[in-house]
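Protocol step 4 of 6.
Sequence for Esterase (Acetobacter pasteurianus subsp. pasteurianus) entered exactly as in the expression construct, tag removed. Do not edit the line below.
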Amino acid sequence: MLLNVIERGPDAPSTLPPVVLLHGLFGRARNLGFVQRKLAATRQTLAMDLRNHGNSPHGPMSYPAMAEDVLETMHHYGMQKAMVLGHSMGGKTAMMLSLIHPQAVQSLLVVDIAPGQGGFARMDLPPGLDKLAFPPHLDLRSADELLRPLIANDAVRQLMIQNIRMGDNPGWAIGMHDILAGMPAMMGWPTLPASAQYSGPTLFIRGETSPYIQPTNYPQMRHLFPHYRLETINGAGHWVHADAPRRFMELVEEFATQTENATTT
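Step 5 output, structure tokens:
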């Protein structure tokens, strides 16, 4: 599946490794916009709408399928190998890509998610959201009023509002049915061959107050990504890049610089 992308890069051709950016559940490419703009000053970047999100096509959700989407889209844009940065669901997709197509991943940066069961438990989404009845017309204020009784958390509600088609004939602009049907797979982690491993440079960044990377995850992280290191950003939650943008960007740029000449097998 060819994904919708936002492409940015420097004015002149760059010899630095390109970067792929993958958003989290119910997000879209532009959610990592400030990270992309920073990196695009010196290298080619592709921020992708994952399947069923943003302006990308819809279809059944699984991490292997989503990894294949990313690879197909990379190749479509002439990108054979890249540093891949993913947050939450995008982080699991990035990990899966590195494990099944390691030759395509120059280095791996995973934001606040581990390779295992877990993630998104705090979203508290009501069942049947794909069958929500929309009024004939909707603007931002009325969309907030529509979702408020269903989604009490302000941050989650605002995240969901960005996925609504406003104006006349409003509705979900995303593949809500496929996303909800795929939630067990998104919460989980596929069974992989014992030989699955990514030996390239790997950085995990976690938010101090987020529950999604725990010591119980470390053995699996070490098995799959033997050269990983973990950085914790104090005071940040799951949306690390929004909670502590300056420190987050420092870690990303430092990692990108350190791994420019990395090779993987």
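Step 6, annotate. The chain has a mean pLDDT of 94.
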